[in-house]
Amino acid sequence: MIGVALELFSRRSPDDVSIDEIASAAGISRPLVYHYFPGKLSLYEAALKRAAEDLAGRFVEPREGPLGARLLRVMRRFFDFVDEHGPGFSALMRGGPAVGSTTANALVDSVRQAAYEQILAHLQVAEPPARLELVVRSWISLAESTALIWLDGRRIPRADLEVQLVHDFAALAAVGACHDAELAALLREVLKGEPGQGPFGDLATRLVVLAS
Amino acid sequence: MIGVALELFSRRSPDDVSIDEIASAAGISRPLVYHYFPGKLSLYEAALKRAAEDLAGRFVEPREGPLGARLLRVMRRFFDFVDEHGPGFSALMRGGPAVGSTTANALVDSVRQAAYEQILAHLQVAEPPARLELVVRSWISLAESTALIWLDGRRIPRADLEVQLVHDFAALAAVGACHDAELAALLREVLKGEPGQGPFGDLATRLVVLAS
């Protein structure tokens, strides 16, 4: 039933989905739904919990190969998720039915934290300096807003945005490194093994072309 | 009274501010507060409206001189605002007492829209291509999240972050331009008159140093 509810809450704005509809789609009676979930909010929160676990799971990526390529694969899975859950994702992130719900806010934060921890693990940084934390956390919010803007009309191909977000990460990290010697040293170390053909090398090539 | 309420809602988490306290600070009776505002939410919304107008007003900047320097002045005024309204700003943006309030959501969106329109006006772009809209709107969300992360411990001097956000804008615009010829042409035109000593020139110098 949670799966059916998640499907419905994802495909339309959750405000427009009724308990009756969920019961009917799940092929169970309305009283039975209420037996497990005292109201729509608790069912919504249960569906959101499943979605949050699903999304956090998509951030997991083997720690092998170039970092830029790893991040690009994660961005593809992130946009898969956003694509599958579009209206529900927009409604939640733009301040929808469950805002004010402590549970919903905590779930959104848990997904952000999972993304943050995955990135630090791939960078092999256990104790991030303040600047690195800022770069990673603010880039995560940039990825959210990019996805929301994409959903609003889909005027840019998502494949472009997946690459662009990898490039945005590199660009924001480079700006941070311009302002902080510790971050600069850390990034030099991290990027030592990156090949010229990956997304990071691709960005460098594009910037040189742009500047010329 | 709205001014007093805004002061109290700004300095502590709005959840912790009572109508009694506002009445007492404003030197008026509790029934008189209720005469004008049927509940705490309506008073909070009135205070938020004043704060939103204040912040949107700080985005207004004469259209003279280098763009980077203009944006830096706006960032200083933005951080002044964030500094003055710290706990209230955090509570609102992290999903605080007024979330679920359509009025509060609309006010936050109106401030974002004001920032967006100011930036387009300074770039002298009436009909932005989709990529430019994405760069500007996603940078606005980056500025919000940077301010929120700064408020959480203030581990990086705000003056550094004001400059960094100007550099972040340039970096995200450059990445966008790498992916979109129309945006690239537009930015070349806009940046023609920028001096080497402004924040944008400074970033270019720093990046060259970093890469070497």
Plain-language structure description:
2 copies of one chain form a homodimer. In chain A, 75% of the residues lie in helices and 0% in strands. The first copy, chain A, has one domain (2-211): Tetracycline Repressor, domain 2, CATH 1.10.357. In chain A, α5 (67-84) crosses α9 and α9 (158-179) crosses α10 (181-191). The first copy, chain A, has 11 helices and no strands. Chain A is elongated, with a radius of gyration of 20 Å.
Please tag this protein with its features:
TetR/AcrR family transcriptional regulator (chains A, B), transcription regulation (chains A, B), Tetracycline Repressor, domain 2, 75% helix, 11 helices, mainly alpha, HTH_TetR (chains A, B), transcription (chains A, B), DNA-bd_HTH_TetR-type_CS (chains A, B), homodimer, 212 residues
Overview in brief:
Two copies of one chain form a homodimer. Chain A has 212 residues and is mostly helical. Chain A is built from eleven helices and no strands.
How does the SSE layout of this entry go?
The structure is a homodimer of 212-residue chains.
Chain A: H1 2-11, H2 19-26, H3 30-36, H4 40-58, H5 67-84, H6 86-93, H7 102-123, H8 130-151, H9 158-179, H10 181-191, H11 199-211
Mean pLDDT of chain A: 90
**Main β sheet profile of chain A:** none
Report helical residue fraction of chain A: over 70%
For the termini of chain A, the CA-CA separation is 58 Å
CATH topology of chain A: Tetracycline Repressor, domain 2
Q: What is the percentage of strand-forming residues of chain A?
A: under 5%
Structural class of chain A: mainly alpha
Main interface: chain pair and counts? A-B, 41 and 41 residues
Shape of chain A: elongated
Quaternary state reads homodimer
Question: For the CA atoms, what is the radius of gyration of chain A?
Answer: 20 Å
Listing every helix as H and every strand as E from the N terminus to the C terminus, the arrangement of chain A reads HHHHHHHHHHH
Q: Please mark out the parts of chain A with pLDDT under 50 across 5 or more consecutive residues, or reply none.
A: none
Protein name (chains A, B): TetR/AcrR family transcriptional regulator
Pfam family, one (chains A, B): TetR_N
InterPro entries (chains A, B): DesT_TetR_C, DNA-bd_HTH_TetR-type_CS, Homeodomain-like_sf, HTH-type_TetR-like_transc_reg, HTH_TetR
Keywords (chains A, B): DNA-binding, Transcription, Transcription regulation
